[in-house]
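Sample A.
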Amino acid sequence: MRHVWLLFFVPVLMIAQTERRILVVSASMGDYIYGAGGTLARYIREGWRVDVAVFANGEKLSRGLSPAQTRLANVQEGKAAAKLLGVHDVVMMDDKSGELGQVSSTEMREQLFALIRGMKPRILFIPDPYVHYQPDGDIRWTGRMAEEAWGYSGGGTFGNELARMGLKPYGVPEIYYYSPYRPYRKGEGGEVEKARFVSRDITDTLEQKITAAELLLTSNRTLASLHKGDAGDADGRRYAREFLTEMAGAVGRKHGFEYGEEFNHVGSSSAAPGVATPFVARPETAKGSVLVVTPSMRDCLFGAGGTLAEMAAEGRAVYVAVFGNEEKLSKGLGPAETRMANNKEGEEAAKALGLREVINLGHKSGELGSISSSELRNQVMALTRLYKPEILFFPDWYVHYQDDNDIYRVGRMAEESAYGGSSLFLQEMTYLGFPGTSARQYYFFVPYRPYRAGEGGEGQAVMKQVEIGGVLEKKIAAILKMHTANAKWAELLSARSGRTLDADEQVRAFLTELASTIGRRHGMKFAEEFNHLRPVTGLPAHVRERAR
């Protein structure tokens, strides 16, 4: 489907962008060199900075090597080829080659949003998802999501966590669609309404393109072997040289050049950009902060509102990431009205407790199980790298008989977000100046009931109680601000009990009984309880599923 309407998200004012920067999106280390290497070499000679985002890990294109050996060889050779071409940086996303169709398109798109907003390139190169009979699914999926990222990155509807990191909406004013391994057929490819078919003379950069491609030894040997059986390095280099020379000649003859490349192009190239500014690593934010991960504001305040109020009173900055859009819990309102009311009231409740900021990530409530867990996890990792919290709160997904799937899914992925402390995840964030980090303490919370004996928490977690008598009234007053959700809750309980319940009275009675029930178990008047983990290294010793 041709996403003509994507173009309306690209701000016209971005045409005035002054930096001479190009971002290239590629499924593999070789695709962009084969499809656009000569044109990119020309831009680089003219003083443009070119960065490349590669989404597949290169683990499959070899003969006689294991996947790990193949990946290492293709990545190292790809970086050497990029360096020879003059590419400034290669950012590896490391999804499994040959399986990009199994990765959430929105997850990949979010990664590309970060690079587009951080780099603010003047020009974007992407694989053309519209070419006919494309046998490589990785190329097709990468091109498709890259086009969506180009369109959506200029709007404020997506990437709320990126906006909090200072990566504001930005639309790339100029885009080239490239076909990696063959000339375009007549009338083929490109965004149908806006794209214009263009050619570029690469006669003076063809040798540089070929020399760079010859460094892709492992993949070239493999491709050569498909034609002549066993092939060595010399055969691979010969294959690359002959193939690229023939393709450039075929394209050039179509357009009156000796050697050429061709693209579908959208945007004006008449601007005269200035010199690019270098990246500067972003400064760290405040220490000792708290990040709360929750499906809804109500969930975290019922389960941990008193403790969060006390932490805020200690001077800690408390940030709340709400994953659900809260569009379903209301009486007589439509989904959009429900969402706006619950979001507004949730922010008022957080403010009443002294919490610093609420980040509404806007996924559809009740449907978080349908979203890629790693996509949700990446958002938590990004916010963790931004706020650098000492403490992370999230729902305890290990509790028995959990009937709310949103709570289960958010808790599960939030615990896994500790992986973001390593260098193996979110390469695009590391590149943009947000290095890996993870919390030093983890609080698992149960929203609406006490823990049962021996229940919940990662294996090495221990039960922790917090006396909240001094802030219980503050917690109740904050939750009473969530009128829309409370009214629906009272309606449901009224239907179950057979008598009409007042929403405010029900909230007050429930929270008081919950706090006193927990308190009696621990010799306190009013309390909240958690499974608490304080790893020596700052990472859970074991982030895993537990058999039940």
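Sample B.
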Amino acid sequence: MESQKSTDGLGLSRRSFLEGLGGFGGSSLLMAGMSALGFGIASAQAAPPTLTGGGGKKVVILGAGVAGMTSAYELSKAGYDVTILEARSFAGGRCQTARKGFTSTELGGETQVCDFDDGLYINHGPWRIPYHHHSTLHYTKEFNIPLEVFVNDNDASYVMFDKGKGPMAGKPVRKGEVAADIRGGAAEILAKSIKQGALDQQMTAADRDHLIAYLVKEGYLNNDLAYKGTDGRGFDIWPGAGVNPGPGVVKPPRPFVDVLNSDTWKTLGSVTNYEQQRTMFQPVGGMDRIAKGFEAQVGKYIRYSTQVKSFRQNDKGVEIAYVDGDGKSGTIKADYCICTIPLSVLRQMDIQVSPKFKAAIGEVSYALVGKIGLQMKRRFWEEDHSIYGGHVYFDDPEILTMSLPSTGWQSKKGVILGYYQFGSQAAKVSALSPGERQALAGRAGERVFPGYADSIEKSFSAAWHRIDHNLGGWAQWTDDGRANAYPTLCEPDGRLYLAGEHLSYITGWQAGGIESAWQQIGKLHARVHAA
């Protein structure tokens, strides 16, 4: 499932450096800079490796998530004999969609059965696909999985901040108003400063004129270099036919100092980093369509409800002991093993690997992540507020983000992502019962949309750090872990290869799992042919 991390294992100084390269020299210089620093750029691979002549070599794959099924799909096409052992009763790993009948039991918690109306769902795992995740898009195209636009930014949505100062604190404010007023106010200050000679020593007269012209355009400034508002931020009286309402009445801008002190402007950069864009994609009908696309190809190789108990290997092959869905024990032997089990789970298992490899498995933590889907009686955000997709931002860590659906426009009902939590707050909220989580989300939404809590019909929540076979949302590497443990795990230990989003620099995204699998099967295939 994809993350909303501000970093992906990159230190802030290095991220700033790379962003500077991109702004100065474009994508080619950015990619060169990432290569120089040893980072693989997101979705660097656009197609799987070319494999031919598997020669019937047997490969056991542990886990039927996206990485495991990618491995099975490509290896089987090349003539390998593949078997997937999957602990769950279904394929997809974290690529899950909760719809009517979907069941989940958290560790130490009660079982939830999703009871949304037919056709409604929540992607409580991954939910967005960036345009540059070529690997994910490679398979949506190959498996004929239709996509639709995911609205990742919406000026009509709200920002609800309590901790800022001034008259905007504790009030929902349209994101577009914040964007216009902070840009306008800042552009006015800078343009007037330049006009008064502030940059005379740094720029030529022609450069200053060009910069002022840009600021006039960027900040909606008038001939006096003053920001007086813009119709793009909205109207108090909307324009219409005839004399009344006629041209309408534009909302007056807020004082620049009020917007600055409110901290609401901090939300404006949330879709300008590499992981987030204003417009993204999602599969029509739910993210699990990707899992089902893979499953249609490799389902015949999957043994469901089969839990791995131990892994052994020698110089001739591997042996995996398991217990199947009927409680029967068994073993399976193969030439090689590809393990896509999250490291948070793998480190607790009985596996025969080198001490260095085993220590490396324990060197990464996993994100604490929580989501809740809320089925609403009606689409009030569209009907009453003209908001179609996008997010509502909070500075309350128990909520952080509320997201409005980018599907089912103008239908009767819809499912809102009521919160998206991380870290300690996700741990705190995950201790609540499903009903208590719904109540918490309802109270938060009530502050932005009156009647929100009463509009909730049903809910389904997930705390990924409490879900068996995952124990976390995604891998969180430290710089030290990347430098020391990560390279060890990217190479095989004997006949064991690891794959998954945790072995990528795009952790928390399906592309990380897919491309990790591509790399590992490429290495395995080269080894087979070199033998």
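B remarks: The chain has 15 helices and 24 strands. Confidence is low (pLDDT under 50) at residues 5-42.
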